[in-house]
Amino acid sequence: MEFSQASYKIISDLLAQRTGQQLTDSRKWRLESALSGVFRRHGIANIDQLVCLLGAASQPSQYNDLADEIVEALLNNETYFFRDKPTFDQIPLEVLPELKKRRQRERRLSIWCAGCSTGQEVHSLGMLFEEQKGLWAGWNIEILGTDISNKAIQVARKGLYTQFEIQRGLGVSAMLSYFDEAAGGWQMRENARRHSRFEEHNILTQSPGRGRFDLILCRNVLLYFGSEKRALAFQRLSNALANDGFLMLGAGETVSPHTDAFIPSGKRASIFELRSSIQGAEPTAQFA
């Protein structure tokens, strides 16, 4: 379906202003399908009519409500349990054992999943710690999931997923161990959610925790930022990471050329550490 370049610019500028994300030409094809629900709710047929409706808003609240609805529809909430498993498996095999040594005295571990979408990544970590609960007995484990999408965060907090969502990345044994069948899908049990918390947050703003995080997962989030915003995001991430902590990006993502604050963590794929560290560890991040 055709739409004017002026309408496209208004929508893309709105997304950039609200989230920092770029609506590149490579994502232009999905505009109509992403906004189809907005069209139905407002009885309109295309993007040009949507832009007219946005411009006709007589009150700031009407404009903001519609703008929020548009932005929510355009956000990419693609995720699934144990996503990119070869990359994810480095967490229990290499990252957590190293952090366990480094935090043996404090016995506290704080993890931030930035851009967590509907929560599957956070809940994957929750299941992982529940599987290893004997190794972490007496430890204070905190997993914070954040996303700019309020709708996605609400889903993450509920921990209720459809059969389709459950089957993506989750085996039958894990499903039966950590979920109960419920009206509308499968409800995650409290034993795998007890370490987790979710907040609405923009990665381009200040860190959502007090202190610094031992492990930050920011996977397939920065792909949607331009060079300037990506550099700012890396600055925020470096400020939020403990000096001896780890940053995990998505498979194939890298820090170069957007920042020199991080270096690859040995031969680990998609895992980075801060280039320089100050003697003495910062206090581990705690939830407000």
UniProtKB/TrEMBL annotation:
Gene Ontology terms for molecular function = protein-glutamate O-methyltransferase activity
Query: What protein is this chain from?
Result: protein-glutamate O-methyltransferase
What processes does the entry annotate via GO biological process terms?
methylation
At the top level of its lineage, which domain of life is listed? Bacteria
Q: What is its EC number?
A: 2.1.1.80
Which PANTHER family did the record assign? CHEMOTAXIS PROTEIN METHYLTRANSFERASE (PTHR24422), CHEMOTAXIS PROTEIN METHYLTRANSFERASE 1 (PTHR24422:SF21)
Keywords from the UniProt entry: Methyltransferase, S-adenosyl-L-methionine, Transferase
Catalyzed chemical reaction(s): L-glutamyl-[protein] + S-adenosyl-L-methionine = [protein]-L-glutamate 5-O-methyl ester + S-adenosyl-L-homocysteine
Q: What is the lineage of its organism?
A: Bacteria, Pseudomonadati, Pseudomonadota, Alphaproteobacteria, Sphingomonadales
